[in-house]
Amino acid sequence: MKGRYYWYQRTEHGFHRALEHYEQALARDVGFARAWAALADTYFLMAMHGLEPPLPCFRKAQAAARRSLQLDPGSAETHAALGAVSLFLDQDPTSADSHWQQAFRLDPNYAFAWHGYGLFFLGSQRRTEEALAALRHAEQLDPLSAPIANDLAFLLYWGRRYALAIEQCRQAIDLHPSFYRSYLCLARCHAAQGNLAEAVQVARMAMPLLQGRAFYTYHLATLGFCLARMGQGDEARAIDSQMDEIGRLHYYSKIDRALISLALGDLAAAQHWIAVAKEEHNPWLLVLPCDPLWEDNIGATH
Question: Are residues 85 and 64 part of one domain?
Fold first, then answer.
């Protein structure tokens, strides 16, 4: 329970503390299947939040989920974790769907299964109505979850339903004022509508809420994109250089770097960073076509 509490924070500190608690649980009982499944979820989301290189994270998630499956084949948490791994590591949507459906059969009230299935599986296929239904069901099951409230807003943003997405962001912020991701989604909604100054203002509001590196370069990419499109190229290039500094110390998502390059009109650099993202097995490539800021540029980067 302590591990899940930290995991729900979706911060660098929270993920690392979650790992510590799961490992402590397994030190007491190596056959505790739920701890192995939770470990898999944590490695998976660390990759999604840009904290570690995706491929080794997904492999760790897969190993933990398989261990959980051996111990308890009837665990909904295990099958939900395997669904995510099948989609992003194995790139096998049929297997992913099968695991998530099994999770629903085993525990129809497991909110994170509906959350992951709606956001990643249905969302990446742009099956917007089905995805929204899954996320709304997850929200009914866990109405106090900041990540679910936020990702419902992201689905609306991906679906180009900006007014609804902005309202959902505001509701999510009202529920959890310090949850940084809701501000990032709100900033992207404004940017997609061309309200660049407002997007910059919201993105800068989010800065003090960011704890560690989770989604940090996503935030920088949003800010750099808007500044470049506003004609403030020097400031955008300064943010681009900041990613160089980050890269000397830590992994970061090269998709974020590519977005700034595109906004600056540097197609060659954008193509380079997308190629690096592919080599790194970046999971967000799957949903890149969903993001409105990339809408006119997907073909140009391939």
Answer: yes
SS3 288: helix
What Rg do the C-alpha atoms of the chain give, in angstroms? Answer: 19
What mean pLDDT is reported for the chain?
96
d(CA 15, CA 80): 18
Q: Is the dihedral of CA 210, 216, 220, 222 positive or negative?
A: negative
Give the amino acid at 185: C
Range of the domain at 43: 1-107
Mean pLDDT throughout 294-301? 65
Count other Cβ atoms within 10 Å, centred on residue 266. Answer: 17
| Same structural domain, 218 and 158 | no
DSSP 120: I
Residue 302: pLDDT band by 50, 70, 90 thresholds?
A: low
Residue from 199, 135, 145 nearest 171 by CA: 145
3-state secondary structure of 1: coil
CATH number at residue 150: 1.25.40.10
Query: Which of 196, 173, 174 has its CA nearest to residue 183?
Result: 173
Average pLDDT over every residue of 241-258: 95
3-class secondary-structure state, position 86:
helix
State the Cα–Cα distance between residues 60 and 51, nearest whole angstrom.
Answer: 14
pTM tops 0.85: yes
Spatial CB neighbours of 14, under 8 Å, sequence gap ≥ 6: 6, 7, 8
